[in-house]
Design goal:
It is built from six helices and 24 strands. The chain is mainly β. The strands form six sheets. A seven-stranded antiparallel β-sheet has the order 5-4-1-2-3-7-6.
């Protein structure tokens, strides 16, 4: 004897009219997903009970043909309930029941090896064949299940669909993919990997979508151009696409895109100029400050504008003309930096190289950041131990939050489609409240609230640098400032004409009348926003060489304040002139002449060193150049 139990309905004296098994393969027809069972039974319903709401215990109740039939057919046609087919076997006088077929919906027990893999069991057909008085109903019922059956006598290596021996059925049933490669006219390769992932449990219930197993490794020299992952309406089929494109020079972490121009030019063989432009684009979770740091490192690696050693460099003269740093605030995380500079060729270059200094020695090399600090404090451990122009940064499969860190994999389950019933309404993609006046026929189901909070990213630790501006400039900004120290030194020599002399003899006589005398004139012109400019105090002084300066006179030109360009304050301007008599001429050996200090800077330079500047190579009678 065979009985069938489903949703608290029991069919007795069952005749099996159909037991169809169909192997379902993946779309490529290569691997099988599961077995689809279509079962058709014919039997009697003589008892009915549904939990605490018992309609009857036996079918002898007179209202069976009308009142109970409605409840019975609803129970048999409702999907996703436990299905069991049992057979009775006699062992002497004892009757033993053996389970012949069993299928359990996923929501009952996700670890049950008999669970359905396609949102079932699913009733398909119900037919009433007749009523036997008021005692029984005869029905024909068809149901469909999708499951994997396994045999316990298989070896462990053959149980490929199960984890933990026989206990757990794997969530991932199959993963099939194809690989396509395309070569363009510049010989750059684009690789596209497309695949389909089949799960045995819906994404909306497991809380994530197993997309990490679909992410292939990134080949050296390639950049991950695009990653697409789509969960279909059933929540069990996931399609994905990965596009990797070959690149020449990888963007350094934490940037994802880099554009750098490094050029040099000459004008009339006299002026040598260079220009370096760096544009970096980063992912949403990287602070712009980190991109600014990396942009400066790239400019320094190509131009040495920060680390240049002027004493050992073959370019003896290197002058930055303009340095600009720009951040773009908006939807794209982007920064840029540029530097324009002027330089002169060194004496170690050949005559041909001096014609145009941007030769093969300076251009065409790989980007080398080995001399720059690679980790950026506050951003964690870099994905690579150092910069390699052949290694791009591979993104995380779930993306990133704009406030820092990888995106939570569980966030994807919020948007996935879920199992629905026509009589249990909440057929909505989101949780937007209904407008006023809408019928109150839907009730939002009780779900765990998902709260995503924005956190403040950790501060990037930037090494302390020497302050270049004075505190007074930080209080009220100087918009213009110039200071000139003029040393006027008289040798006290007089020139007299000779009364008579030969044609080849000297026609004049130079006579030393006394010791040299010296004066110093200081002229300052400054403009300041918000406050009057600071001026040197009109006092005598003694420099480090022991030379005393006596103030003879000074003058101050005060200009009326003008309105600032923005109209938010006043611009004050002043000019001053100081005339000093020195008690002796400043020494030219092992000495430093004071030149003053600009009021808006915090310079610590001691001054002008004559022995480092005065040279006989440039006149008045220059030495011949070495052959």
């Amino acid at each position: 004897m065979i009985v069938v139990e489903y949703n608290n309905i029991r069919l007795e004296n069952v005749i099996t009219r159909g037991f169809r098994q169909e192997v379902v393969y993946d779309p490529s027809g290569t691997d099988h997903f599961f077995v689809r069972y279509t079962l058709e039974f014919e039997g009697l319903i003589t008892g009915f009970r549904r939990g605490q709401y018992a309609a009857c215990e036996m079918m002898g109740v007179p209202v069976i043909a009308h009142a109970l039939w409605k409840d019975i057919r609803h129970a048999l046609m409702d999907p996703r309930h436990v299905l069991e087919v049992k057979g009775a076997f006699k062992d002497g006088d004892q009757v033993n029941w053996l389970t012949l077929f069993r299928c359990v919906p996923e929501r009952i027990n996700p670890q049950d090896p008999d669970r359905d893999l396609g949102h079932g069991p699913k009733p398909i057909h119900l037919e009433t064949l007749g009523s036997i008085g008021g005692r029984a109903l005869k029905v024909r019922w068809q149901v469909q299940c999708e499951k994997l059956d396994f045999l316990k006598d298989l070896s462990y290596s053959e149980r490929i669909h199960f984890e933990k021996e026989f206990a757990d059925l794997q969530t991932v049933l199959d993963n099939r993919w194809s690989v396509e490669e395309e070569l363009d006219s510049n010989f750059y390769l684009t690789r596209t990997i497309r695949g389909s992932l089949r799960l045995s449990r819906p994404v909306a219930r497991i809380g994530f979508d197993y997309r990490w197993i679909t992410v292939p490794a990134l080949e050296a020299g390639f950049k991950r151009q695009r990653f697409r992952y789509a969960v279909k309406e059933d929540g069990l089929t996931c399609e994905y696409e990965v596009v990797d494109r070959q690149v020449h020079t990888a963007a350094p972490w934490p940037a994802t895109e880099m554009r750098v121009t490094n050029s040099k030019s000459t004008e009339l063989g006299m002026h040598y100029r260079g220009h370096c432009q760096v544009d970096l684009i980063g992912p949403p979770h990287v602070p712009r400050k980190a991109l600014v740091i990396r942009a400066i490192q790239i400019m320094d690696a190509l131009t040495k504008f920060l680390s240049r050693n002027l004493m050992n460099d073959k370019f003896l003269n290197w002058l930055p003309v303009r340095i600009q740093l720009t951040e773009y605030i908006g939807e794209v995380n982007q920064v840029s930096g540029s530097i324009e500079y002027q330089f002169s060729p060194g004496t170690d270059l050949t005559e041909a190289e001096q014609q145009f200094v941007n030769n093969y020695k300076e251009l065409g090399n790989d980007l080398d950041l080995s001399a720059q600090p690679w980790p950026i404090p506050g951003l964690g451990v870099p994905p690579h131990p150092q910069y390699d122009p052949n290694l791009s940064w591979m993104p995380a499969p779930y993306g990133y939050n704009t406030w820092g860190g990888e995106r939570d994999p569980a966030a994807v389950a919020i948007f996935q489609c879920y199992l629905q019933r026509p009589y249990h309404p909440w057929h909505a993609t989101g949780w937007w409240p209904a407008p006023q006046g809408a019928p109150e026929e839907v009730t939002r189901p009780a779900v765990e609230e998902v709260s995503v909070q924005r956190v403040k990213p950790g501060d990037l630790i930037v090494p302390e640098e020497e302050r270049k501006f004075s505190p007074s400039h930080q209080t009220a900004m100087y918009t213009y400032c110039r200071m000139v120290s003029t040393y006027r030194i008289s040798r006290r020599r007089m020139v007299f004409d000779r009364l008579s002399a030969d044609d080849e003899a000297a026609q004049t006589v130079v006579v030393q009348l006394g010791h040299s005398t010296a004066r110093r004139v200081i002229v300052i012109d400054a403009e300041r926003h918000g406050q009057h400019p600071e001026l040197p105090a009109p006092v005598d002084y003694t420099d480090d060489n022991g030379v005393k300066g006596y103030l003879l006179d000074y003058s101050i030109d005060l200009l009326p304040p003008a309105v600032s360009p923005a109209g938010d304050g006043w611009i004050y301007r002043a000019r001053a002139r100081y005339v000093y008599a020195l008690d002796r001429a400043p020494p030219e050996k092992s000495a430093v002449w004071p030149v003053g200090r600009m009021p808006h800077t915090a310079a610590t330079d001691s001054g002008f060193k004559p022995e480092d500047v005065f040279t006989e190579d440039i006149g008045p009678n220059p030495s011949p150049s070495p052959s």
